[in-house]
Amino acid sequence: MTTVFSTAFSTAFSTAFSTAARRTSHWWRRAAAALAVATAGLHAATLGEHAAASPMVGVVTVAMILGCLYCAGHLWMRGSQRDWGLVALMNVGMIALHLTVMSPGSGGGGHHGHAMHAAASAPMAHAMSTPMAAALATAALEAVVAVTVLFYRSRLDQPPT
């Protein structure tokens, strides 16, 4: 009798939790899509500054704007595991790139030996502009949300033990 009750309770709980997670996922997807659009706007705000520093940096900034909008569209429409993974990867990559380029020991932004050397060797101030600081903070928030969603989704996909 206890096993039947335990199994019924477990099934009812997992069904209720799964339904709530799907509903919540809709709102998380939309919130993350809005953050991605905001990040694209922040990149657009820094486009003039970046393009003035180096045309290559301007091209990379335009690519980041398009990447943010691409992820926003996918998150808004469906938010698959792949979409969330791409959001996490792009945001962590953006943070790493900006922190590397802006680090005081980088010689004004040099990436010694990297393909981005021409873009990164442009003179850049070590002090971050307000839009860039806001973009990094937004990217950090997006990365945390994406990793959290991926973690909990992977837990929902596991068979009960």
Characterise the protein shown here:
The chain is mostly helical. The chain has 5 helices and no strands. The chain has helices spanning 2-53, 55-77, 81-102, 117-120, 130-156. α1 packs antiparallel against α2 (55-77) and α2 runs antiparallel to α3 (81-102). The longest helix is centred in the N-terminal third of the chain and has 52 residues, at 2-53. The radius of gyration is 20 Å and the shape is elongated. It starts with a helix and ends in a 5-residue tail after the last helix.
Task: Give the tags.
161 residues, mainly alpha, 5 helices, elongated
* Contiguous uncertain segments of 5+ residues: 108-125
Structural class: mainly alpha
* Radius of gyration (Å): 20 Å
Task: Write down the overall geometry.
Answer: elongated
Percent helix: over 70%
- Kindly estimate the percentage of residues that lie in beta strands according to DSSP: under 5%
Number of DSSP-assigned strands: 0
Q: Please give the largest β-sheet.
A: none
Average pLDDT works out at 76
* Alpha carbon gap, first and last residue: 19 Å
Order of helices and strands: HHHHH
Helix and strand layout, with pairings?
Layout: H1 2-53, H2 55-77, H3 81-102, H4 117-120, H5 130-156
Helix pairs in contact: 1-2, 1-5, 2-3, 3-5
Question: Summed up, what is this model?
Answer:
The protein is an all-alpha fold. It is 80% helix and 0% strand.
